[in-house]
Amino acid sequence: MEVIASGISDIGKKRKTNQDSICVNKEHHFYVVADGMGGHNGGDIASQMSVKILPEFIKKNISKVEPEKLISSAIGFVNNEIFNHGQKNAELKGMGTTISSVLITETYAFIGNVGDSRVYMINNGKLFQMTRDHSLVQEKLNLGVYDREGARNDPQKNILIKTVGFEKDVSVDVYKYKMSKHDIFIICSDGLHGKVSDSDILNIVNTKIQNPRNATQDELTDAAQHLVNQANINGGQDNISVILLAVK
């Protein structure tokens, strides 16, 4: 399948640095959003390490390893690299990053996720969340403490229960999805989904990309920019990153 992609990472309106990083690797149809965390620039380093090392690992192993195992192994490898780097540098100890990634093959999308960055998919004009957050709020949702809208106002919504690089080992959520020729994937940090509702995300993308089968690069870029703009209009308290993929 032909895939087109466009990505943007924006500092937002409140932060002094951008700890998000993105990877748009068109050669191997591999895409990543990483949202770093940790003092003394640790978040910047963790997310930047992720988007550098992951595509290198994919390129080296894509012909040797089945995709589902490949994406899990790649994130596990990055986890070890970040963890070990933090152990060797006291000021970076405890740094970590979220990773949400998509690897596209001829028929399937393989999604790898750790943390609270997300992958969405739009099919026939409807939005579906393809990943589950590794956050305290998600655990409360699982327990039925409140509904999805109530979760948006939880003061602990930024507390994560799992990230890449914080501990020596990490378990990775991997999902396999058989694609259709009109699917649009959205990979984003919580700077987007934490400030723009699912319904508004859907409305912006549907407005800017009215015919996904014939989506253009310019339409994807325009939609991505409008998503970032809306997050900034809604406060822009965090860094904002988004990648849009269209399967043609």
Shape: globular
What's the Cα radius of gyration? Answer: 17 Å
Number of domains: 1
According to DSSP, the number of beta strands is: 11
How big a fraction of the residues is strand? 25-35%
Known CATH architecture = 4-Layer Sandwich
Category by helix and strand content = alpha+beta
Structure description:
This protein is α+β, with helices and mostly antiparallel strands and 248 residues long. The longest helix is centred in the first third of the chain and has 22 residues, at 67-88. It starts with a strand and ends with a strand. 35% of the residues lie in helices and 27% in strands. The strands form two sheets. Strands 2, 3, 4, 5, 6 and 9 form a six-stranded antiparallel sheet that branches. It has one domain: 4-Layer Sandwich (Phosphatase 2c, domain 1), CATH 3.60.40. α1 (42-61) packs antiparallel against α2 (67-88) and α6 (198-208) packs antiparallel against α7.
Short description:
By secondary structure, the chain is α+β, with helices and mostly antiparallel strands.
SSE topology sketch:
Blueprint: E1 3-10, E2 20-25, E3 30-37, H1 42-61, H2 67-88, E4 96-97, E5 99-104, E6 108-114, E7 118-123, E8 126-129, H3 136-143, H4 148-151, E9 173-178, E10 184-188, H5 190-193, H6 198-208, H7 217-233, E11 240-247
Antiparallel strand pairs: 1-11, 2-3, 3-4, 3-5, 5-6, 6-9, 7-8, 7-10, 10-11
